[in-house]
Structures are given as C-alpha cells and as structure tokens.
Amino acid sequence: MPLYMDVHSLDGAVSFEDVGKAHRADLQTQGGYDVSYLRY
User: Fold this and answer.
1) What is the value of pTM for the model shown?
2) What is the pLDDT of residue 27?
3) Where do the DSSP E strands lie in the chain?
4) 14 touches 22 (CB < 8 A)
5) How much is the pLDDT for 32?
6) Phi/psi at 24 (nearest 5 deg)?
7) Under DSSP, is residue 19 helix (H, G, I), strand (E, B) or coil?
8) What DSSP string runs through 1-40?
9) What DSSP designation does 29 have?
C-alpha cells in the first residue's frame, strides 16, 4: 500500500483541542475512502 503525507498550513492560532477534533473527524470518515490515518 502506498504511503502519502498530507500536510496543511493554517493561518492564525489553532488550539490542540481543535486539531484533536479534526483528527477524530478524519478517523470517523477514513474507511469510506480506503485511507488509514497513522498520526496527526
């Protein structure tokens, strides 16, 4: 299976809580796209 790096640059302040919420949302939808998030 190929391994890809997904990188995002954000303007302004982002809290650790916001990042965690976004990652949990990714985990909930990853199966529909045959993706497996390894870490954030």
Assistant:
1) 0.68
2) 92
3) none
4) no
5) 93
6) -60, -35
7) helix
8) ----------SS---HHHHHHHHHHHHHHGGGGT------
9) H
- 3-class SS of residue 35: coil
Yes or no: say if 39 and 26 are a contact pair by the CB < 8 Å rule. no
What are the structure tokens assigned to 1, written together?
């299976």
Q: Residue type at 19? A: V
Q: Do 25 and 35 meet the contact criterion of CB atoms below 8 Å apart?
A: no
CB atoms within 10 A of CB 16: 7
pLDDT tens string, the chain, 40 residues long: the values are 788 888 888 788 999 898 889 889 999 999 999 889 888 8
